[in-house]
Specification:
Strand content: 5-15%
Number of domains: 2
Structural class: alpha/beta
Shape: elongated
Distance between the termini: 80 Å
Strand order of the largest sheet: 3-2-1-4-7-6-5
């Protein structure tokens, strides 16, 4: 790297670290982040592997945070820091190894996926993208280090379903090249056997975790296109124009550019095609999934450029179109930065832990998203219960249930699960979102023999209500 470029690299990374670190300090985990901590805290590795079919991911992220979760140390900072290291490493690796011009690298660095989402929200995605970038960076030399390459493929596949898509494609390409060169005796038998064995073990782990069907994970094309449009088409006209322009040109230019390199073209069509199939047939997906459309388009161009370093006019304008797609993400910062930093989980948990009545009573949680407060409250031994299951709120499959059984008042029957949730010797408090069906004025649900009264105890910013919940036998 030239001195001029090195100064630019150091400046960009310094700015990146300063701003993202400040965001990280004030980040309060969302439900999905807290869920991973709960899983790692309450289950052993074998139980986690068996659970992944329901969770929809693979186990490595849970393994990384498990020591801190088991010891209940400094939640949520170990989880945030581990994730941040991989997000930062992805950006640094891209600057050092990716065959893009500096403007493209700059735009990618400060785009929504790499500047807002990945370094802040502690999920399994940053580690997967880091390993995908390494696979792209080692692409030309993969047969020089076959054992290392196959190990990275297996590890990458075991970070998330989104990463499995890219890792499996890298695996197919690597296996093809390995067999072809093995037939020519350009790869030793030891490396050949070990590489395939490592990838086979990785594949078996995937099948163990995700094999079979899971009726709880559902989606359809309508939901997918709705969710994608809400992420992709924002309130800023300039962002929409850039996004649509970049996408149209990329969808045309990228396949044409990659056509001379069939493996990179295969990577593009395979990854994008599998993602569309998953989102339309299995699970509708959300923002943190959709960023992989852009990441895989970027990687397909990356591996093409690794084998075709010569700068042609077609290659240059293709890179510009990809850069435009990421540039559109920069304009959505005002709409996304706040929501991805502030879940309010710590604020909400502190509110409960500082109220003596709530600490001594039983807290009933109704909505899945409300369970993001659980890791903050475990050290206080507060009596937390799940409404829908009538179970104490330690980790169980209840954490995956939807809000289908959420109470709507006034209604004229008392669900059996609510009676199971209510304590007979403590004051009960229900935490619910404020809607027209759960008004701040409170409400009553009843049947022929029982009446349950929800009286407002605390109003949390007109968003949540803490209701004193009393059961009266008629």
């Amino acid at each position: 790297m030239k001195l001029k470029n090195n100064k630019l690299f150091v400046t960009v990374i310094a700015i990146y670290i300063i701003i993202t670190s400040l965001r990280l300090i004030f980040h309060q985990p969302w439900y999905d982040e807290a869920l991973a901590w709960n899983i790692s805290q309450n289950l052993n590795l074998l139980e986690i592997i068996k659970l992944m079919r329901v969770e929809g991911h693979t186990f490595i992220w849970y393994l990384l945070i498990m020591p801190f979760a088991k010891a209940d140390l400094w939640y949520p900072y170990p989880m945030l820091i581990i994730n941040y290291i991989f997000a930062l490493a992805s950006v640094i690796y891209m600057w050092k190894k990716a065959p893009f011009n500096n403007l493209t690298k700059f735009v990618i660095t400060f785009s929504f996926p790499f500047f807002i989402l990945l370094p802040i929200v502690a999920r399994c995605y940053a580690i997967g993208i880091f390993l995908l970038f390494i696979l792209a960076g080692l692409y030309r030399d993969k047969l020089k280090y076959p054992i290392i390459y196959s190990t990275i493929i297996s590890c990458c596949a075991n970070t998330s379903v989104m990463a499995i898509i890219g890792a499996s494609c890298f695996g197919f390409i690597f296996a093809f090249d390995l067999i072809k060169e093995g037939l020519k005796n350009n790869v030793s038998k030891k490396d050949f056997i070990l590489s395939f064995s490592i990838m086979a073990v990785g594949a078996c782990l995937i099948l163990w975790q995700l094999g079979g069907s899971n009726a709880e994970i559902q989606g359809n094309g309508t939901d997918f296109f709705k969710n994608l449009s809400e992420y992709y088409i924002g309130t800023k006209p300039i962002s929409n124009i850039i996004a649509i322009t970049g996408s149209i040109f990329s969808s045309i230019l990228l396949p044409i550019c990659l056509f001379k390199n069939k493996k990179s073209l295969f990577f593009l069509f395979y990854t994008i095609g599998i993602m569309i199939f998953i989102f339309t047939q299995v699970y509708a997906g959300f923002t943190h999934h959709f960023i992989f459309f852009f990441v895989y388009a970027l990687i397909s161009y990356w591996i093409y450029s690794e084998e075709n370093p010569k700068n042609t006019i077609l290659k240059k304008i293709t890179e510009i179109s990809i850069m435009l797609m990421f540039l559109s993400h920069i304009f959505i910062f005002p709409d996304t930065a706040y929501i991805y930093i502030h879940s309010g989980s710590k604020y909400f948990a502190n509110y409960i832990s500082n109220d003596e009545n709530l600490k001594k009573g039983r807290i009933i949680l109704y909505y899945p998203l409300d369970k993001r407060i659980i890791p903050y409250l475990t050290k206080y031994n507060i009596d937390l219960w799940f409404y829908c299951q009538g179970e104490k709120a330690t980790y169980s499959s209840a954490l995956h249930n939807t809000s289908i059984c959420s109470p709507k008042g006034p209604i004229y029957y008392v669900p059996s699960w609510l009676s199971r949730s209510l304590s007979k010797d403590k004051t009960n408090y229900s935490i619910m979102k404020i809607t027209d069906e759960t008004p701040l004025s409170g409400f009553i649900i009843e049947d022929r023999s029982r009446r349950i009264i929800f009286e407002l105890y605390k109003d949390i910013n007109k968003t949540y209500g803490i209701f004193k919940t009393t059961e009266i036998l008629k």
